[in-house]
Write a structure and sequence with these properties.
With 511 residues, this protein is of the alpha+beta class. The protein contains 16 helices and 18 strands. A hairpin with a 4-residue loop joins β8 and β9. α6 crosses α7 and α11 runs parallel beside α12. It is found in: Cytoplasm. Keywords: Aminoacyl-tRNA synthetase, ATP-binding, Cytoplasm, Ligase, Magnesium, Metal-binding, Nucleotide-binding, Protein biosynthesis.
Length: 511
């Protein structure tokens, strides 16, 4: 029996923890700020005005008046707004540092001589760190050489109810991910990553446009999950009373577009895979996929190298040597190496492995190396063993060419090598960044491959594809020989910045 009047937990005897003290302090500050908001409203002052007489921005003023000497003043009057990230109040003069969204800062000086007793008193009473404020006044350089606004008028632009974190302490990773808005306020790297991603996206589109590709959009909700080997998210449509899948890849719809005559097509898309999450995998992620009629996997390798190198130059301002988050440099320049999967596996393992190698030999090698393979086929053993022996050795950008047939059901067989398909994976800094095929366009062979995948699915493989009759119907109207590629956008940012995937996604899914 429990005593319902007893406390839920016994006191530790050591007093409240640091986290409990911080939470109590935040709660107290929140109430103080709510009281200030109420007083502002009672006094007829907007705490969140709809409009302010803004004439310029902090970055624009910094650029225009960068030449001012220490102590130099102008008669130029501006109106601008920013978030207060530093504040110091003295008797007749208050100082505040205002920060714009891109991190640019300027000092605001609120003096008794310029604003009068009542306005100065209101500033001291109502303004807190984290508030957005509007200031109006002359542009000057202070006696310490700080570019400043000598304020003659000010207003609250948005009252912060919760305090900012301590700007002198680095945010923990969980806080950065869960409260990205705080991360963007306090950390330069967070803002730079957002700008880098925007530059990469613009660069991708520019490179594709330069090669006459058209951008399209394909469905995220699909009646069949296909285009990749992955476990899907499943949902239900009330309107259609049917089970639907969140897209794991746009491939099968983009190929329909090629059948329809859009010879060069690409999509920057959101995909969803109900699998593990770690430093290089996210259940929701961005990809770019592209297909080119009368192309092949070798041409797609050339295109992918150009896409990545142009993206790097867009982020760095023209260099192919990128500086990673840990301060090291990484060279994305030159023509990238191309290695054969079977040949490199044979060399690394000390055993000759070919498409004809019996499953029993592969199983024995895997057991000797401690490599576990689920739903084992020849191809899965080859790929898992290759990963075991080679993936961590590929630091420089490298295309790994020519994969097993049974793990690549949408890929054309190699023109000269039985049992191998024309597929590559691109590895950068040891992780997979992109993949490409010479596409399988024979509808009869494609049906056979789908049937084999369906057998694997019936045997319990959750990643195997199903027979997609609508896609096969499209192929039977004839798809020209084509090359196709797919690349993770989040991973492209990882390659260029050296950050983990949760840092390259603005708002990643967290538990």
């Amino acid at each position: 029996m429990t005593d319902e009047t007893a406390p839920a937990t016994e006191p530790s005897g050591d007093g409240p923890s640091a986290a409990e003290l911080a939470a109590a302090e935040t709660s107290e500050q929140r109430q103080v700020r709510l009281d200030k908001r109420a007083k502002l409203l009672d006094a007829g002052i907007e705490a969140y005005p709809a409009e302010l007489p803004i004439t310029t921005t902090i970055p624009a003023v910094r650029e225009q008046y960068a030449h001012l000497e220490t102590g130099e003043e102008t008669q130029d009057v501006v109106g601008l707004a920013g978030r207060i990230v530093f504040s110091r109040n003295t008797g007749k003069l208050c100082f505040a540092t205002l920060q714009s969204g891109d991190g640019a800062r300027i000092q605001a000086m609120v003096s008794l001589a310029e604003v009068g007793d009542e306005s100065l008193a209101r500033w001291k009473e109502f303004v807190d760190l984290g508030d957005h404020v509007f200031v109006h006044g002359r542009v000057i350089s202070s006696r310490r050489g700080e570019l400043s606004i000598m304020v003659d008028e000010w207003a609250i632009a948005a009252k912060a109810i919760l305090p900012l974190p301590n700007l002198h302490n680095e945010l923990g990773e969980e806080t950065r991910v869960r409260q990205r808005y705080l991360d963007l306020i306090v950390r330069d790297q967070a803002r730079e990553t957002v700008r880098a991603r925007a530059a990469v996206m613009a660069s991708l589109r520019q490179t594709f446009t330069g090669h006459d590709y058209l951008e399209v959009e394909t469905p995220m909700l699909q009646t069949q999950h296909g285009g990749a080997s992955a476990r899907p998210f499943v949902t239900h449509s009330n309107a259609f009373d049917t089970e639907l899948y969140l897209r794991i890849a746009p491939e099968l719809f983009l190929k329909r577009a090629v059948v329809g005559g859009i010879d060069r097509v690409f999509e920057i898309n959101r995909n969803f895979r109900n699998e593990g999450a770690d430093s290089s995998h996210s259940p929701e992620f961005a990809m770019v996929e592209a297909y080119q009629a009368y192309g092949n996997y070798e041409q797609m390798a050339d295109l992918t190298q150009e896409l990545v190198q142009n993206a790097a130059k867009a982020v760095t301002g023209g260099s192919l040597v990128v500086t990673l988050a840990d301060g090291t440099e990484y060279d994305l320049g030159g023509d990238w190496a191309r290695m054969d999967m079977y040949g490199s596996l044979s060399e690394a393992s000390g055993h000759e492995i070919t498409p004809e190698t019996p499953l029993s030999e592969l199983r024995a090698l895997a057991a000797a190396e401690g490599v576990e393979v689920a739903h084992a086929t020849h191809g899965k053993y080859v790929e898992e063993l290759w990963e075991h022996f080679n993936s961590d050795k590929l630091h420089a950008p490298t295309f790994v060419m020519n994969f097993p047939v049974d793990t690549s059901p949408l890929t054309r067989e190699h023109r000269t090598r039985p049992g191998v398909v024309e597929k590559w994976d691109l590895y950068v800094r040891g992780f997979e960044l992109a993949t490409a095929y010479s596409e399988l366009v024979d509808p009869v062979v494609q049906r056979e491959r789908f049937v084999e995948q369906a057998k694997l699915a019936a045997g319990g493989d959750p990643e195997a594809m199903r027979v997609d009759e609508e896609f096969l119907r499209a192929l039977e109207h004839a798809m020209p020989p084509s090359g196709g590629m797919g690349m993770g956008v989040d991973r492209l940012l990882m390659a260029i910045t050296g950050l983990g995937i949760r840092e390259t996604i603005l708002f990643p899914l967290v538990k």
